[in-house]
Design a protein that fits this description.
Chain lengths: 444, 258
């Protein structure tokens, strides 16, 4: 029997309780989600198209608690929430503890910026929940719709440019296995610009957690968004994430996804354009060790003219870690003068590590420039010996080479203070001394 | 002060190979402080294999014999510790390392050595000063020093960069594997005079070359001929001149007819 069943049964038994702690704008979407899930009958499994290394059936199989009654537990609340205060990054911040929005940002928001609980935003702006451009049969999005009660809403008003990043810290904090249903909605209006940093950490390393997370992004005409997504969790955390983005004409979207630690991770990205002249870049950085599994699936559709897209996914896999990459660039009829590039490069640091890569281009239009490629290799033994012969110990030499390999991805992180912090986290992760979120806890 | 009674490197009946194929078939060699040894020999005779085995390249398997480096069992040391203990190899084919700057590379190398000897890392200022000084020894362009290790360097620039690294590390025994190949006439003079500046009575050089012209600058005390994995003939500087004139056939005949 599919592990989806327990969620359907749970929903049917607890619908009233779920609804009573959520706004009508969320509740009214549950019937459609239920119908979708019933039709699907199961989660995607390993071997299904686009699922080569991760089984959502397995990920969702354990019996996690779901806190639908919104009982506050853990050490949530304002004072208890540790900022993952990445040093030097002056941020506007908000937290999601388990699945509840916690507004721990005490100062006034800049003019033209809204940052609030998604439950509240859904009352003010009911259509903010319908931005998703994920395929209609996406099980994670449907499950998220089915059980959603809260999340984060960010809106940057027309023409407002926010030079400082907005940081959204999602934390797990519970002593029992817990699944959190989370959604982040980012609405950047015409000619506005913003930088967002979303960080995912557990507070406890000894408990199993599962995040069912959806991020929906909308960019107006000429808008720009730099969305950075950091996961630094533990081997006992699983995460299924779907990021969708819809871009207005001449907008600029830059997504960087950094997976430094975790158990099983599945990230999906769906990007589409509403007008000409859009630029999209999706940059994935993965460092995985132990038995970690990290799978990224990135889909960019071009159906307007003069749009560019650029996807780069780089993995460094240690121990018996497994990586997966499925990428698709679809240049549709009429998307003339498209320039699309997709590249996946992987370093298998250990002989037990495995990578499964499937980059794909589908082009139904002339007059386009498109490229894709994937390469998986090991550390260069000659370079390693060269460094050792100069006195650099083997481990150090390996670190330097891996850092150099990852540099191409790290250079794409545009916000400088964030990049230097992430470089530090990356280096520490590579050095294997990164216990979960030590960065955040250490600096307070 | 020359201490010619000390032995810097003593190689005895060294056998080594690659992928099950024996290449070094019993090398014997003794190098004392202050000496310069030239190793010559036809292509494929095992010169680079010897230098790689001494430096600890894991590509080669040692199948017999020993190498003692100022009292230490050289073959038991990790390559990095061989370097700390004063062994330096100037590669015949220096390796390009994209994404790793020369500065970071040299800093890591120097600080690893200092750590090995329980010394504090060099301050940023002192390190850069040292880089500047040592660059001058081989007239290495500052632009090269700020690029990734050997990336996009010309053949000659790579060789010059090797000797720059030698200057930084101040080794006790330097093995120069065809450092002259790829250098133009002026560069050869500059690099060779750099090597001579680094030469003291306490350190030694093993210079692998095919041509006499390098030996005009770096004057050897001994010239060895390596052939089919063995040192088949040893002489003074005049042996190199003789080889230049006569080639290797006479040596090959002697050895092959034995
Ligand atoms: N991977 C390998 N497998 C088999 N044989 C190898 C391998 N690498 C090197 N050899 C052989 O080992 C022998 C010695 O090579 P080496 O590079 O030591 O020669 P050399 O004396 O330095 O030559 P040159 O003057 O051309 O630089 C050659 O015959 C070469 O073909
Ligand atoms: Mg050679």
């Amino acid at each position: 029997m599919s592990s989806l069943n327990q969620y359907l049964q749970f929903f049917e038994a607890n619908r009233a309780a779920i609804d009573s702690h959520a706004p009508e704008a969320m509740n009214c979407r549950r019937d459609a989600a239920l119908a979708t899930l019933r039709r699907l009958a199961r989660f995607p499994d390993r071997g299904d198209e686009g699922f080569e290394v991760v089984s959502l059936e397995d990920m969702y199989a354990p019996d996690y608690g779901i806190n639908i009654a919104r009982v506050p537990f853990g050490e949530g609340g304002k004072s208890g929430v540790h900022g993952c205060d990445i040093p030097n990054v002056g941020t506007i911040s908000a937290s999601v503890v388990n699945d509840s929005f916690v507004n721990d940002y005490q100062r006034a928001l800049p003019e033209g910026v809204e940052l609030m609980s998604l439950a509240r935003a859904a009352e003010l702006y009911p259509d903010c929940l319908s931005l998703s451009v994920a395929p209609a049969d996406n099980a994670v999005v449907a499950l998220n719709d089915l059980l959603l009660q809260d999340g984060v809403y960010i809106r940057v008003h027309r023409g407002v440019s926010l030079p400082k990043p907005i940081q959204i810290l999602s934390l797990f904090n519970a002593s029992m296995p817990l699944m959190a249903v989370r959604r982040i909605v980012v609405d950047v209006e015409d000619n506005a610009s913003a930088i967002v940093i979303a960080c995912d950490h557990p507070r406890t390393t000894e408990v199993d957690y599962l995040a069912c997370r959806v991020v929906d992004i909308r960019l107006g005409r000429g808008a720009s968004l730099d969305f950075n997504d950091l996961e630094e969790a533990t081997a006992r955390c699983s995460r299924s994430s779907v990021i969708t983005a819809v871009q207005g004409a001449d907008s600029d979207l830059h997504i960087s996804s950094i997976t430094l630690d975790g158990g099983v991770t599945r990230n999906e990205y769906y990007v589409s354009h509403l007008g000409d002249g859009c630029h999209t870049s999706v940059n994935g950085i993965v460092v995985a060790g132990g038995t970690q599994v990290v799978d990224n699936a990135s889909y960019v559709v071009h159906d307007h003219e003069h749009c560019t897209s650029d996807q780069l996914f780089k993995y460094a896999l240690f121990d018996s870690a497994q990586g997966g990459f499925e990428g698709l660039v679809n240049v549709r009829h009429g998307a003339r003068f498209t320039d699309a590039a997709q590249s996946n490069r992987n370093l298998l640091v250990s002989p037990q590590a495995r990578m499964h890569a499937m980059p794909q281009l589908v082009i139904d239009c002339d007059d386009v420039k498109a490229s894709h490629g994937s390469a998986t290799g090991q550390l260069n033994a000659d370079a390693l010996f060269y460094m050792q012969s100069r006195g650099i110990p083997a481990d150090e030499a390996r670190m330097i080479l891996i850092n150099a390999f990852m540099a191409e991805g790290m250079e794409k992180i545009k916000h400088e203070p964030l990049r230097s912090t992430l470089l530090m986290l990356l280096d520490r992760r590579l050095r294997g001394c990164s216990d979960s979120c030590a960065a955040c806890h250490g600096h307070h | 002060m020359t201490m010619n009674n000390d032995i810097l490197l003593e190689v005895k009946d060294l056998h080594a190979g690659i992928d099950g194929k024996e290449i070094l078939r019993g090398i014997n060699l003794t190098i004392r402080p202050g000496e310069i040894h030239a190793i010559m020999g036809p292509n494929g005779s095992g010169k680079s294999t010897l230098s790689g085995v001494l430096a600890g390249n894991p590509r080669y398997t040692v199948t017999g014999g020993s190498a003692t480096f100022h009292g230490l069992d050289l073959l038991a040391l990790q390559p990095e510790n061989r370097s700390h203990e004063g062994l330096f190899l100037s590669f015949q084919y220096p390796v390009e390392i994209p994404g790793v700057s020369m500065v970071n590379f040299m800093r890591a190398a120097l600080n690893a050595k200092r750590k090995y000897f329980n010394e504090q890392p060099l301050s940023a200022g002192d390190f850069l000063k040292l880089m500047r000084q040592k660059r001058a020894v081989v007239e290495l362009d500052n632009k090269l020093a700020s690029r990734s290790v050997n990336e996009g360097f010309s053949g000659g620039e790579k060789k010059r960069n090797e000797i720059f690294q030698m200057a930084m590390l101040e080794p006790r025994l330097s093995i120069l594997d065809e450092t002259d190949s790829g250098l133009d006439i002026d560069a050869l003079r500059i690099v060779a005079s750099g090597v001579n500046k680094l030469k003291t009575a306490d350190n030694a050089i093993m210079v692998i070359t095919h041509y006499q012209r390098l030996l005009d600058y770096i004057r050897p005390d001994f010239v060895h001929i390596l052939y089919k994995g063995r040192i088949v003939h040893t002489g003074g500087p005049e042996l190199a001149l003789e080889l230049e004139e006569k080639g290797y056939d006479w040596i090959k005949e002697q050895v092959d007819n034995q």
